[in-house]
Amino acid sequence: MMFQLDFRDKRPLYEQIKANIKELIISGILKSDERIPSVRELAQTLTINPNTIQKAYKDLETEGLIYSVRAKGSFVAPFNAAANPARLDELMSELEKILAELVYLNVSQEQAIAVVRNVYEKRGVKARD
Amino acid sequence: MMFQLDFRDKRPLYEQIKANIKELIISGILKSDERIPSVRELAQTLTINPNTIQKAYKDLETEGLIYSVRAKGSFVAPFNAAANPARLDELMSELEKILAELVYLNVSQEQAIAVVRNVYEKRGVKARD
Amino acid sequence: MMFQLDFRDKRPLYEQIKANIKELIISGILKSDERIPSVRELAQTLTINPNTIQKAYKDLETEGLIYSVRAKGSFVAPFNAAANPARLDELMSELEKILAELVYLNVSQEQAIAVVRNVYEKRGVKARD
Amino acid sequence: MMFQLDFRDKRPLYEQIKANIKELIISGILKSDERIPSVRELAQTLTINPNTIQKAYKDLETEGLIYSVRAKGSFVAPFNAAANPARLDELMSELEKILAELVYLNVSQEQAIAVVRNVYEKRGVKARD
DNA sequence: GTGGTCTAGACCACC
DNA sequence: GTGGTCTAGACCACT
To answer: pLDDT of C7-40, one tens digit each?
Structure first.
């Protein structure tokens, strides 16, 4: 489980960490109940302050993507479709916003659908534990 | 041309202003070369500082969505497909990220494509100047 | 003698007018002692305020590029190399600044010299009445 | 890293600041990833308002010459040839304009080329990070 | 301490 | 009246 931080990125470091871990989870690289590095481990690996990792993990836990067991570590949460309908609404709204701008930029419906098919082909058949 | 600011929103005010005006432009409500409110006018309407509007307008201008003429006012920029290849890349990348998360949340490809068709139906045939 | 103004240009209108007339003179399209449009004529052609033209002409006269004869009109000044050594210094300084940035952007000396040759080829042999 | 502002200069202060820092970068005095003074530091040194520096830095960042890291400071961006094709076009166009006027002022092609060679000799072999 | 955002109030150039 | 620039002083998020 490795990723790098971009210190020139405008986003806060903890946002980058969240985004990276989230990507590892939704791409299926990290499986359900798999252990992820402890706060201290990751802080050392990335050479940043543990507080920053702490904040990222806490956020991910609130979002239902990971869970922590005291004295054991943090783990990938098993997928639960019903867990966050709010997140789904949010994504749909973002999706519509992006599509609207694509329409404005003269991207054809066919091109847009092609992107959808492409993503589903790449990620759709991945195993989910 | 009216919209409201949400002072509880965590985003900077000028970002909200940008987003609102952008939406008015890409939705076709504001037409090419149509005049938008002056910096002072809008500041008064929204009861915020003119500098904040100024910043939003300046940003929108560098993004190619509006143009400002000294002593005349600010106007919607005529659409220019070739103007913003970078923005298109950015949008495509965002699109893929959202779709990836939708895959993870078990949204079917058919549902995703339905959203695309829906947006194109609603906005695709709008007149452009 | 025609040119167009770009109202979206950030420069003041009178600067654009100056630049256009200057280009017509240095490119040899307007010859020495040739008459240029009166303030009123040009103002009407461009549909802008005569004061703006007035200011442009006054500036050009100060720079030695045109001269005005009361009740006759304005004319292209005959070329006089010794007239503005200051302008030459200014140009040389600008030239060096641009070249310095080209160096930084990895443009080769050969490319730069090619541009020089190209311009001289195009404009060098033009007749100067 | 020192320079002075000319308060009689007609250009905005932030433009002067930008020009000065740009010169330090393209001349190689400031190296890649080298830290430049913080907004507040420089404001104090020049005895002007921090907002003015902020604006200059922001502009330099969008031009790709520096990058800023929150809570860390601002730094010289590593050179990226592909980053700025638009700027190159702009410079070339300016170069041609200046050369055209030099032709008009009877500066010989040889003299112009000599200037080019001179600049490349002075700056061409500087180290880049 | 750093960059980023915001306000209030001011002056300038342009048309 | 319009956009553009500048100051002074303030608060916030981040590390």
So the answer is: 888 889 999 999 999 999 988 889 889 999 999 8
Q: How far apart are CA A122 and CA A99, in angstroms?
A: 21
Residue B113 to residue D5: CA distance in whole angstroms: 58
Q: Using a CB-CB distance cutoff of 8 angstroms, which residues of chain A are in contact with residue B109?
A: 116-117, 120, 124
Closest D-chain CA to A13: D70
Helix axes B50-62, B13-26, angle to 10 degrees: 50
CA A89 to CA D94: how far, in whole Å?
A: 51
Pick among 3.30.1330.130, 2.60.40.1840, 1.10.10.10, 3.40.50.800: CATH of A13-76: 1.10.10.10
By the CB < 8 Å criterion, does B62 face chain C?
A: no
Residue B14 CB in 7 A reach of strand F: no
Distance E12 C1' – A26 CA (angstroms): 55
Q: Which nucleotide is nearest to B67 (CA to C1')?
A: F3
pLDDT of residue A31: 87
Domain parsing of chain A, residue ranges: 13-76, 84-123
The answer to whether D74 and D66 are in contact (CB under 8 A) is yes
The tens digit of pLDDT for each residue in C35-58 reads: 999 998 899 888 888 999 999 999
